[in-house]
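User: Can you fold this complex?
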Amino acid sequence: MRSKNQRTGSGEDRLIARYFKPLVDHPGALGLEDDAAFIRAPPGRDLVITTDAVLSSVHFFADDPAHEIARKALRVNLSDLAAKGARPLGFLLTLGLPKGISQRWIAAFARGLQADANAFGCPLLGGDTVRTLGGVVVSITAFGSVPRGTMVRRRGARPGDLVIVTGTIGDGALGLELRRKPGLGRQWRITRRQHCELVTRYRLPQPRSAIAELVRTHASAAMDVSDGLAGDLAKLCRASGVSVSVDVARVPLSKAARAVLAKVPELMQTVLSGGDDYEIVASVPRAKLQRLRRLAAAKKVVVSEIGVVIAGKGEPRFIDRKGNAIALTQLSFSHF
Amino acid sequence: MRSKNQRTGSGEDRLIARYFKPLVDHPGALGLEDDAAFIRAPPGRDLVITTDAVLSSVHFFADDPAHEIARKALRVNLSDLAAKGARPLGFLLTLGLPKGISQRWIAAFARGLQADANAFGCPLLGGDTVRTLGGVVVSITAFGSVPRGTMVRRRGARPGDLVIVTGTIGDGALGLELRRKPGLGRQWRITRRQHCELVTRYRLPQPRSAIAELVRTHASAAMDVSDGLAGDLAKLCRASGVSVSVDVARVPLSKAARAVLAKVPELMQTVLSGGDDYEIVASVPRAKLQRLRRLAAAKKVVVSEIGVVIAGKGEPRFIDRKGNAIALTQLSFSHF
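Assistant: Here's the predicted assembly.
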């Protein structure tokens, strides 16, 4: 881990020694005492690498708890690894902090990071700390491994395969709306508990690492749903050269999301394209679906069939209860 | 590479397709069309990983040319790989851009990145684009490889080894001063050309990739000089459990730096601890020095002997022409 120090060790040095060294046990991390780390994929396995950054006021709110920011930053990367069928190996952290951030904040951040590094078996390998002119930037590169040549890709969906998603869709996007607009929960007439559930889904994604291996052995194509089911499925379709038809009534919703939609049906747009789900969408050959659902259930992950892969290139179609295609004004969240 | 798109592909999608896909030829990058990339260290080699971020107004000026910002971001990582004796394999890019950045800026950035990716044999493997609330953030994770177990570390310097540095020291730090304070060049009475040389050294580091393999086979410990020779040597000493004595008169200086120091001798402090050198400092067993210098010279890299490793833990000592230890008020640049 890079650090910049003065005679007695700079703030940055002390910061690393105090908060991040305790997180390190991987031998390749060299105790965060070098400029680089090294890593080795287990014999016969490929290394899978992914990188995702989260920035304050863009991916989280500046006053979100520091430990949750750390966990979200790691989890969005773990979600990518899970969707690729990869087992986590470790991660590099680039942490950009504004001047004057408190030791307490940093301690909480490190604590959150350690909790999830342990929970998901994905140790800190190294990183870089830099100063920003304002706001927190957390960029993580995560490493995983798969048996050689078996990384699940966006490409590979075949006509006739079924489309599945894990967990529930839309909670994160609705949670973000609630977080943005105080009083919205009252307007939606949801309970305090439902409010909390939706906001928590936004703040703390649940990467489906538990079924990464099942995704690898069952899915013909997969990706994580981070920018909206509609837009992410469109990407999977493009990469695979196919289209899909999604039965919107089968898209799995939480009780809280159903309560919101009962009140404001137009929010189905937000559910389908809002993003921040961190679930897995995949195409699965028909013959493999029941086994996948059963084995995933044993890992406490619900797998729902929501549609079918169709021959020919094209945008995904979302069909409502009456058999009509829903026109989505926007398929997914876009930063630009 | 992650992207967020709308019906017809978002700005982010188009941005990636237009500017970054042309950079990709590594098979593991999957044409930037997936959430992850994969990479394999060649047989019998370890993967070396390093990460470094550069931020506008912290590591570069907002009005620096975009192609130079891209090249600096990649080069500071290549410098780390070179100091570890590693051969580049590829890199991941996280690019944070503020709203309203021009297509022209992005095109120039991509052009700079491609130029150096080609020049240093370090292809783009994937990445993430995000929006920032202001300013550009470039975080790069670079991958290299070394024969198994041979990564050069900060630990390993032995009493009696000689201390060497590559190239010249202090130019980047003086260039930064010049960039910060218009009119300073006149005050220092340096020529326009010297002014330009120093500023260029700040804006565009010269990673010593050409001698990475020589560092690996000759150095007992090494690191890149990015935060100041004094502070970086202190880190190498701490990791190795030794001290060093540096003969300041032997620290290699460019003509431009010598001209500045002739006018303002106090700037020796800046030269020794200012940072932004991106040279390599290493300890080398005496028997290996001549061979290293000769082979490095053949690669057009000057290697200068500047001191000796001393038994016992301690801060590095900088000795002037008269044999007196120089008291440095600060060993290196610190962000915090």
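The first strand of chain B starts at residue 37 and ends at 39. Residues 1-9 of chain B have pLDDT under 50 and may be disordered.
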